[in-house]
Specification:
- The complex is a heterodimer of chains A (667) and B (484).
- In chain A, the strands form four sheets. In chain A, strands 3, 6, 7, 8 and 9 form a five-stranded mixed β-sheet that branches. A four-stranded antiparallel β-sheet of chain A has the order 10-11-12-13.
- In chain A, helix 5 runs antiparallel to helix 9, helix 10 runs antiparallel to helix 11 and helix 13 runs antiparallel to helix 14.
- Chain A is globular, with a radius of gyration of 27 Å.
- The longest helix of chain A is centred in the middle third of the chain and has 32 residues.
- With 667 residues, chain A is α+β, with helices and mostly antiparallel strands.
- Chain A contains 20 helices and 13 strands.
- Chain B is elongated.
- Chain B contains 17 helices and 18 strands.
- Chain B is an alpha/beta fold.
- Chain B starts with a strand and ends with a strand.
- In chain B, strand 2 and strand 3 form a beta hairpin.
- Helix content of chain B is 31%, strand content 22%.
- An eight-stranded mixed β-sheet of chain B has the order 6-5-4-3-2-1-18-17. Chain B has a seven-stranded mixed β-sheet with strand order 7-8-10-11-14-15-16.
- Classes of the chains: A alpha+beta (667), B alpha/beta (484).
- The interface between A and B is large, with 74 and 73 residues.
Chain lengths: 667, 484
């Protein structure tokens, strides 16, 4: 990597030597010093939505400087390795010139100063927050993040690698912001504030969703999650879409808790309440209160029982249950981490004298809070690799969190797992038919030793020629994983013999191919008797507690077949999907890569009960609002007049832009 | 003294029309009240149907009708007042009733009117633009379906129909009246019946009109929309048409000196006086041919869907809701028009004076005693608030829904009427639920017999046969008679 050197920026001062005579002949030039590129780039952002106005009542506490990974090749836009910010505003017929964050004047002052009236600052802010989010993801997953592929409409066309997510900071004139899977882009809206938005926002001011750091993090997370697995976007039960929303909120929330400036200011303003909720609760309440999003934790203090897993079916209501569960776990963890500090500072009484907190104490409390937030974020993200291949439920997500955590920390010494299990249990976000809530019952069952090393697996891995030491570019990772999917497919197809062996992976022997309309196709060379697909093949490396590096491959194996909500009406067709997620250990023993199946997380396609549940869900009977409030009214109106959203049909706007619809409803 | 009240329910399609008759003392001709008369603009042969319906109404009431109620400004409730203007020509009209929301000198109503006007003109412009793009064609279709509530197929605005109805009173010796929730009406010569007005509420939050400015001195720039909810889309459409500049648009994000004119650059033009290379970034990224699929030129227009839904909801919520109380038995006939949840929620708070020393009555008391419910908005999910419906647990309940499921399906609406609502009303009425699109009605067969609060067997009246699209169609009405 090359340091950004600009002649204008590296002008050196002449050596000062007052005693010496004026030098007439030029001194021998020393070789120009080289400056290593810094690893981080400081950038200023609005940590709190500026349109929220006076709730933290000064500009200073709204602004934070965050340090993002320094991309030395960053081009105007900003356009970097992961992101391109393109600032066109067709509704206003405007194109705003791109910001150049490598300009010396901006390098010297942590980027542009936060300003609502400067489009270039908006570009800087979406870049900074999105990059932070991507980094959290990569740390959690232990590998580079990829965006979901572009599937061109032309038949037979290859999947296209998407190098950069595009961000349009001023795309819409509405109280909305969404991730568009169709455009591989984030679209942010703006709108004039109405007095109804909040009494703090004077009417007539412009509210920009791209200036709300939690919205930017939320939308970026949608894009990252979509790149992680397509299945998260297939709404086969009421939890799936709620999971997408809730997870995006979780990442946005805990990212907020890693902005040191913000956390420090919040703790410093504390007067006497040293419970975790007292220390940071207000920040959580503010979260999501900004533009167009009902805060998922707004009623945290007075937890109303109106929201319950058994009877809340709106995407946001249900999603906020998940956020609430994770947040409760986080509070328990913070409590545990700060208890000793509070005891030390108060001589055991828990009561401090009147006045401000000691700055050292503020610093230490902020440290512990930020660490806890980072840890929770990591646990939540790491769990993604252990989720089922289709049809995720909150209970299964808890299983994934527990399993993933056991993998890295076999002993739950800090009680994190207990905190999560307790929080999920309180809200009843548990797997179906779970007898007791414990690590043992919640963790996925590992594969029995006798079945860990099927021959086809070893052959497939050998063919893949995996080089664990290589540091590949994201494009190369994508190309390799496309090839490796086919290697695995070939070997698995050859290797699975009996129906029982197919079933061990949640697959059905003899399930053929179907065309887009659900008609069975005759088997041929390209599509044999049994069809399945290998998706989302990813290799990650994680450092374990004992210093070892764990290398695992996560793969999704899936099948689909057409089913009908109402067999008499062909229009009610949907794809019923099943399969499994495989977690494969790649042990590097004496230079030989020996694969073994560690987990096979099955969602069998032959499951009749699951099919029945999905039919019930798709018929709309489950999700009908029970106590209809205004929000439900809006939802049902849209479903009535713009029903394409639920049909999942090919060309309908709602099917293409699911997040546009969901987010428009969240006011 | 027990009396009999007759509700003639026209089953002519997706639209409301009911004729209420009450006996007068002394053997005079009965008191008559027409509640709405319209059909959705997507219905085939709508004008012919409404002319036949109007002729039948005139045949029933004779020369004079006492009251016509226009519940709210929607085509499927008011269309006949222009479509069948001639049929009503010789009819004397005593009074025309509206809610306060249609009162031209009411400041809240004026704001609502301005809002409705601005949304409709924005939608009329946005829909064809959406239709022109294959990616958003289905949105245009949805918006057109909603516009069918406010416009005829030929582009006549529903306001024409509303004002035609107003004229029917003003030009024929009658008067137009506007009602507030809490009003109680009785009629000379009609004993034993009181009419209570339950809605629409004045509460701007319940109506959802809190974003419409009251001040008229803060006039926006010519061509710009004044209502905060409408301005972003409406003004953007003006900007596209070069009728409004950025600096005059309060919904624009930045001052005009920020940025460059996008359409000039998209068309390959250049902006004079700029340093070379100012548009290089745009060309390299946004205009790169291989990523043309990532362009967002029209994505903002999808926001007009929200406008269309909001307009529909707000207009429905401005429905006047009438409850007829048969005093002796306490039974209530509830005409909910298309009231949505905001309107329903306001009823428990509406209080009716019962004279000195007597406790006040509230809206909930009336809902609990309902024996006839005119189902809101053709049975769609948003117009029957389930907690409200659950209060109608009177054992004698009868319901009528002027709906047309097959037409709704053709327009592309789903769950219209909503199966959950239908099932629940079926249960609560023990099957005495009249649906206008019940196929048996066309042959003169009544789907259910006497029962509940009905005084006798309901009768299907095939009152006309007309040609619609080359096929003969029977037009029917059902007379429901309630005693109490």
């Amino acid at each position: 990597m090359k340091a950004p050197t600009r002649p204008s920026a590296v002008k050196r001062l002449p050596a000062s030597n007052p005693g010496a005579k004026a030098v007439t002949k030029p001194a021998r030039q020393a070789p120009p010093p080289t400056y290593p590129a810094p690893s981080r780039r400081p950038l200023r952002i609005f940590a709190l939505d500026p349109s929220l106005g006076a709730s933290l009542n000064s500009y200073q506490s709204q602004v934070a400087t965050i340090h993002v990974r320094n991309e030395t090749e960053l081009k105007p836009g900003p356009v970097g390795e992961y992101i391109e910010v393109v600032d066109v505003d067709p509704a206003s017929n405007r194109y705003y010139a791109p910001v150049d964050l490598n300009h010396p004047n901006l390098l010297m002052q942590s980027g542009l100063a936060p300003s609502e009236g400067n489009p270039q600052f908006h570009q800087q802010m979406v870049y900074a927050v999105a990059m932070r989010t991507i980094e959290s993801f990569e740390i959690g997953l232990g590998r580079k993040a990829l965006w979901t592929v572009h599937r061109p409409a032309a038949p037979g066309a290859r999947n296209v690698f998407i190098e950069r997510l595009r961000i349009y900071p001023h795309a819409l004139r509405e109280k909305n912001a969404y991730y568009s899977p169709e455009r591989k882009a984030l679209l942010f809206g703006y709108f004039p504030a109405q007095s109804s938005v909040s009494d703090l926002t004077p009417p007539g001011t412009m509210v920009f969703s791209c200036l709300s750091s939690d919205i930017v993090a939320h939308e970026t997370t949608h894009a990252l999650l979509d790149g992680q697995a397509r299945a998260f976007r297939e709404p086969s039960n009421p939890d799936v879409r709620a999971f997408h929303e809730g997870f995006a909120d979780i990442v946005a929330l805990f990212q907020q808790f890693t902005y040191r400036d913000l956390v420090r200011a919040e703790i410093a303003s504390n007067r006497g309440d040293f419970s975790a909720h007292g220390l940071i609760g207000r920040l959580a309440v503010q979260f999501g209160e900004g533009t167009g999003k009902a805060g998922p934790l707004r009623n945290y203090a007075s937890f109303d029982t109106a929201l319950a897993y058994e009877k809340t079916f709106t995407v946001h209501g249900r999603g906020s249950l998940l956020v609430r569960a994770v947040y409760s776990a986080f509070l328990a963890i913070v409590e545990r981490r700060t208890r000793d500090l509070v005891r030390l500072a108060t001589g055991g009484s828990g009561v401090l004298p009147e006045g401000s907190l000691h700055p050292d104490l503020v610093e230490r409390l902020a440290d512990e809070t930020i660490r806890a937030a980072q840890h929770v974020l990591k646990m939540c993200i790491r769990a993604l690799d252990y989720t089922p291949s289709v049809d995720i439920t909150f209970g299964e997500y808890l299983r994934a969190i527990v399993t993933a955590d056991i993998e890295v920390f076999p002993e739950d010494a800090s009680g994190y797992r207990v905190a999560f299990m307790e929080a999920f249990r309180c809200l009843r976000l548990l797997p179906r038919s779970l007898r007791t809530v414990s690590s043992e019952t919640l963790a996925w069952n590992g594969v029995r030793p006798a079945q860990r090393t099927p021959d086809w697996l070893a052959a497939a891995i050998e063919e893949m020629k995996i080089d664990l030491a290589a540091n590949y570019s994201r494009r190369r990772i994508f190309d390799l994983s496309e090839d490796r999917r086919w290697s695995l497919h070939r070997h698995m197809l050859r290797g699975l013999a009996t129906p029982a062996e197919w079933n061990a992976f949640g697959l059905e022997d003899g399930l053929g191919r179907f065309d887009g309309a659900g008609r069975a196709m005759t088997p041929n060379k390209r599509s044999p008797r049994s069809t399945f697909s290998i998706e989302d093949l990813r290799i990650s490396r994680r450092q374990l507690e004992d210093g070892d590096v764990q290398t695992q491959m996560a793969v999704v194996v899936r099948q689909r077949r057409p089913e009908y909500v109402d067999p008499a009406r062909p229009a009610t067709m949907f794809w019923f999907r099943g399969g499994s997620r495989l977690i494969i250990d790649l042990d590097n023993r004496d230079g030989n890569l020996t694969p073994s199946l560690r987990y096979v997380i099955r969602k069998p396609i032959v499951s009749q009960t699951r099919l029945d549940r999905e039919k019930e869900f798709r018929s709309g009977r489950v999700s009908a609002p029970i106590a209809a409030g205004e929000r439900d009214e809006e939802t049902s109106l849209r479903e009535t007049y713009f029903p394409s959203r639920r049909s999942g049909g090919g060309d309908a706007f709602g099917a293409r832009e699911p997040f546009a619809m969901i987010h428009a409803e969240r006011e | 003294m027990a009396i009999e009240i007759t509700v003639r329910c026209y089953c002519h399609g997706l639209g409301d029309c009911m004729l209420v008759s009450l006996p007068r003392t002394g053997g005079n001709r009965p008191f008559t009240m027409l509640i709405d008369c319209g059909i959705h603009s997507s219905a085939k042969g709508g004008s012919d149907i409404m002319r036949a319906v109007a002729a039948d109404i005139v045949k029933h009431v004779g020369e004079r009708i006492d009251v016509i109620v226009g519940t709210h400004e929607h085509w499927d409730h008011l269309s006949a007042f222009t479509q069948a203007r001639e049929a009503f020509n010789d009819l004397a009209v005593g009074e025309v009733w509206f809610s306060w929301a249609e009162n031209p000198i009411d400041s809240q109503a004026e704001r609502l009117d301005r809002y409705k006007g601005e949304v409709i003109s924005a939608l009329v412009e946005a829909a064809p633009r959406l239709a022109a793009d294959a990616e958003t064609r289905d949105l245009a279709q949805g918006i057109d379906g909603l516009l069918g509530f406010v416009m005829s197929a030929d582009g006549d605005n529903v306001r024409t129909a509303r004002e035609a109805l107003r004229d029917m009173a003003q030009n024929r010796g009658g008067k137009d009246r506007h009602f507030e929730p809490g009003a109680i009406e009785t009629f000379p010569g009609v004993a034993g019946v009181k009419i209570y007005v339950l809605g629409p509420p004045r509460d701007e939050r319940l109506l959802g009109i809190e974003d419409i400015p009251a001040e008229t001195y803060m006039r926006p720039a010519p061509g710009a929309a004044s209502v905060a909810a409408v301005a972003p889309i409406a003004n953007a459409l003006r900007i596209q048409a070069k009728e409004l500049s950025i600096d005059d648009d309060p919904a624009a994000p930045f001052d005009g000196h920020n940025g460059f004119e996008l359409d000039t650059l998209l068309a390959g033009g250049s902006i004079p006086g700029k340093q070379p290379g100012y548009d290089k970034f745009l060309k390299d990224y946004y205009l790169a041919p291989k990523s043309a699929w990532r362009k967002i030129d029209n994505d903002w227009l999808a926001g007009s869907v929200d406008l269309a839904l909001q307009l529909d909801g707000r207009t429905n919520n401005s429905s006047i809701v009438l409850a007829f109380e048969l005093e002796e038995s306490g039974r209530v006939l509830l005409f909910a028009a298309d009231a949505q949840i905001g309107n329903w929620k306001s009823w428990p708070e509406v209080e009716f004076e019962q004279g000195p020393g007597k406790p006040k009555l509230n809206g909930d008391d009336l809902v609990r005693r309902t024996v006839f419910y005119k189902v809101g908005h053709h049975g769609s999910r948003n117009a029957t608030w389930s907690p409200g419906l659950e209060k109608m647990n009177h054992a004698e309940l009868v319901a009528f829904s002027p709906t047309d499921e097959s037409l709704a399906g053709k327009i592309g609406w789903s769950d219209f009427p909503a199966p959950g609502t239908t099932t629940r009303i079926e249960q609560l009425t023990a099957g005495r639920f009249l649906k206008a699109d019940d196929a048996r009605l066309r042959n003169g067969t009544m789907p259910f017999a006497k029962g509940g609060a009905l005084a006798g067997d309901p009768v299907v009246d095939v009152f006309a046969q007309i040609q619609v699209g080359g096929a003969a169609v029977n037009l029917v009405a059902v007379d429901l008679v309630f005693a109490g």
